[in-house]
Amino acid sequence: MDARAVFFDLDDTLYPYPPCNEAGKRAALETARDLGYEFDREEFDAFYRAGRRATKHELSGTASSHERFLYFKRAVDEHAGTHRAGDARALGEAYWSAFVDAMEPFDGVDETLAGLREADLTVAVVSNLTTRVQLTKLDALEIGEYLDHVLTSQELVREKPSAGMFTNPMARLDLRPGEVLMVGNDPVNDVEGANAVGMETALFNCDQTDLEDHRQPDHRLDSLSDVLEVVA
After folding, report:
1. Cβ-contact 32, 39 below 8 angstroms
2. Cα–Cα distance between 115 and 118 in angstroms, integer?
3. Helix, strand, coil proportions of the chain in percent (round to 5)?
4. I need a labelling partner for 56 at 20 to 30 A (CA). Which of 16, 128, 157, 225 fits?
5. What is the pLDDT of residues 25-37, one digit of tens each?
6. Considering the entire predicted model, what is its pTM?
7. Is 190 helix (H, G, I), strand (E, B) or coil?
């Protein structure tokens, strides 16, 4: 393709998300026990799911729907029957601290980003979730030197696959859809959304094969470094 830019998703695209999420939950459970909540892991998971479910129900489609501080606030309110701001804050801080500490980039991330920089391609991260959390993750991955632009869904008050999450950074970077490759792990948020605005797409870290036509990527990547071949 005649590429001038590559847009990357962040979570589960530049680093594996599940081990970080698990580390965060374990840390939050230990903090809950320190605060006097007599949870075993099964009880904690039910507590967490209740807060997550309430948050998603009220804030679906917004960056805040992913915010763990809100999950824990809702969970504590429901569990205790009263407001305990300090407990919710402590659980959220424990979760995110352990999450970030557990982050490790996928193999080839630095080499891929450095190769794109050497090829004089523009590189952006386009991600759902709140800005502070995503910037913290990018700092932990130590890839800021390779990025020309970062956009989070909190900035636009709407999330991928919304067209604005793709057209906004293109406009800021003076790019046309045919000049951009979107790389992500989600057939809906990353592939369907980018396909809808005319971008070329690459699916990474996703084994789904029964995808509808509008969710079919132009490329499937076995490793992130395959991006360099796609845009060559």
Report:
1. yes
2. 5
3. 55, 10, 30
4. 16
5. 999 999 999 999 9
6. 0.95
7. helix
